[in-house]
């Protein structure tokens, strides 16, 4: 028996109620499948044990609808690449503002066009710029010509420039945070909802989420509890600058629920949220947490996996089992005896296989670290890159100082277990800061971000733009380059 975290009422299965309504003396709350990261963002983690149907639809209306619309610029561009459980009927038109010209634009079906046809006269350059979409440009240009002639503008002295489409660059992206009314409030509530639901899902008591959940008013609240992630340590910085090349399933979603370590006075309960490997925030759920230490992670890939056709009947008999096992078919329950039974078994099992989107954070960090080590090795030896995917990381490790490279290598060790597996407990929680002669200090990432933000916010804004342009680069590629996708050649 579980209660809804918002209204705190007991939830029952709708089916049970429909079958035996007389058993209930009251109108119960029904269980509801809640996506902890929104379905429209490709989120796959769902549970029917945290939120009732009516609270689920309330939060969907109040928070999710707006929140997911803020991502439309990306989800719209990436929709052919991202796997979603089902497509909701949301408008595929995104309105925005071009940051350079300040013009209103419409993003639709992969094209950015000026919203309303218009023109501008540049008297200095003797130029007329005409903005219109490609379908009406011919007609509109004629209209402009007539208008200007009527105004007795000597058109023969002017050049005419037709602008049918805005350059699809990062400047378009910058609009995204600036043209939406109450952008921040809507944006932040989306993260607060994800963090709160993930904490409840991980078993944290609802009364412990003081900074995001008002249990009396039965609502999610923003108590200035959100902190943007920003790489202060050089290890995090090198990961993020090269993440599109180092991370094998870029872009991904990551959630980490943790209590801040090394704080004997009080424990802070955080949820780190990393959406599309780009939008990274800490949500403080409780800054005086009294429960046990917490460390829970969730990680998933987003890109659609297309299952290749396999004709098992064309394989040589001795290859059938190893090939089948390599794609994940188990023979533990196989009882067939004839060759035909074997074929039928593997074909049926293969048809049942679905892509698993959930990832193991330790394993993904291991791959990132492995790629970093290879890039550092090539950079320090001036060697040649055998793996083209790593050419940009190698370049970036070539240009940093020996001291910084040393710090990255030292921090690598912080994440390594004695058996060479990865301990993800430090990731996004702590980092190494060089301290005098060969010494290092372990610092708390969120605490240092708070200090840094008070000093100067500019690097954070620059970082945001860089992350944004990486995702734009990914989104604008019609297919993902092979060198990014193949992460298994070691
Ligand atoms: Zn409820």
Report on this model:
There is one protein chain. This protein is globular. 38% of the residues lie in helices and 20% in strands. Helix 2 (53-69) packs across helix 6 and helix 11 packs across helix 12 (391-398). The two termini are 47 Å apart. The relative contact order is 0.11. The strands form seven sheets. The protein has a six-stranded antiparallel sheet with strand order 14-17-16-15-18-19, sandwiched between helices. A three-stranded mixed sheet has the order 1-2-3. It is of the alpha+beta class and 490 residues long. Among the domains are: 93-174, no CATH class; 225-304 and 357-490, no CATH class; 312-354. Strand 2 (10-12), helix 1 and strand 3 form a beta-alpha-beta unit. The structure holds zinc ion. Zinc ion is lined by residues 4, 6-7, 9, 29, 52, 54-55.
Number of helical stretches of at least 4 residues: 16
Question: Termini distance?
Answer: 47 Å
Largest sheet: 6 strands, antiparallel
Number of strands: 21
The order of strands across the largest sheet is 14-17-16-15-18-19
* Shape by Cα distribution: globular
What percentage of residues falls in helices of 4 or more residues? Answer: 25-40%
**Parts with pLDDT < 50 across at least 5 consecutive residues:** 86-91, 167-180, 479-490
- Assembly status: single chain
């Amino acid at each position: 028996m579980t209660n809804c975290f918002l209204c705190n009422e007991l939830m029952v299965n709708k089916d049970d109620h429909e079958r035996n309504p007389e058993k209930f003396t009251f109108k119960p709350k029904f269980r509801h499948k809640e996506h902890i990261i929104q379905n429209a963002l490709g989120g796959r983690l769902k549970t029917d044990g945290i939120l009732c149907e009516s609270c689920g639809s309330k939060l969907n209306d109040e928070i999710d609808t707006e929140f997911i619309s803020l991502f439309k610029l990306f989800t719209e561009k990436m929709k052919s690449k991202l796997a979603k459980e089902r497509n909701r009927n949301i408008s595929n038109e995104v309105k925005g503002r071009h940051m350079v010209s300040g013009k209103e634009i419409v993003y639709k079906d992969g094209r950015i066009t000026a919203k309303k046809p218009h023109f501008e006269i540049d008297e200095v350059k003797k130029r007329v710029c005409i903005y219109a979409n490609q379908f009406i440009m011919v007609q509109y240009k004629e209209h402009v010509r007539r208008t200007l002639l009527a105004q007795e503008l000597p058109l023969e002295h002017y050049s005419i420039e037709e602008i049918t489409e805005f350059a699809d660059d990062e400047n378009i992206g910058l609009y995204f945070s600036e043209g939406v009314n109450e952008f921040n409030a809507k944006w932040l509530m989306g993260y607060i909802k994800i963090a709160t639901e993930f904490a409840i899902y991980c078993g944290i008591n609802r009364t412990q989420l003081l900074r995001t959940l008002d249990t009396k008013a039965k609502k999610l609240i923003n108590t200035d509890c959100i902190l943007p992630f920003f790489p202060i340590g050089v290890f995090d910085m090198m990961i993020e600058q090269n993440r599109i090349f180092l991370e094998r399933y870029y872009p991904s979603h990551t959630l980490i629920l943790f209590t801040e370590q090394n704080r004997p006075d009080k424990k802070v309960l955080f949820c780190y949220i990393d959406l599309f490997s780009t939008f990274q925030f800490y949500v403080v759920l409780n800054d005086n947490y009294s429960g046990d230490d917490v460390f829970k992670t969730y990680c998933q890939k987003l890109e659609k996996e297309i299952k290749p056709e396999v004709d098992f009947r064309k394989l040589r008999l001795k290859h059938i089992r190893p090939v089948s096992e390599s794609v994940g078919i188990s023979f533990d329950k196989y009882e067939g005896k004839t060759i035909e039974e074997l074929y039928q078994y593997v074909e049926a099992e293969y048809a049942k296989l679905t892509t698993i989107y959930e990832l193991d954070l330790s394993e993904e960090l291991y791959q990132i670290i492995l790629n970093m080590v290879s890039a550092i090795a090539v950079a320090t030896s001036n060697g040649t890159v055998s793996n083209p995917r790593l050419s940009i990381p190698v370049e970036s490790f070539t240009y940093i100082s020996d001291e910084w490279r040393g710090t990255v290598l030292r921090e690598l060790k912080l994440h390594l277990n004695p058996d060479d597996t990865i301990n993800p407990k430090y990731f996004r929680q702590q980092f190494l800061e060089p301290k005098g002669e060969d010494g290092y200090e372990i610092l708390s990432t969120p605490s240092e971000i708070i200090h840094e933000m008070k000093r100067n916010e500019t690097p954070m804004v620059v970082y945001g733009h860089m992350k944004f342009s990486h995702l734009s680069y990914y989104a604008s590629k019609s297919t993902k380059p092979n060198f990014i996708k193949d992460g298994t050649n070691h």
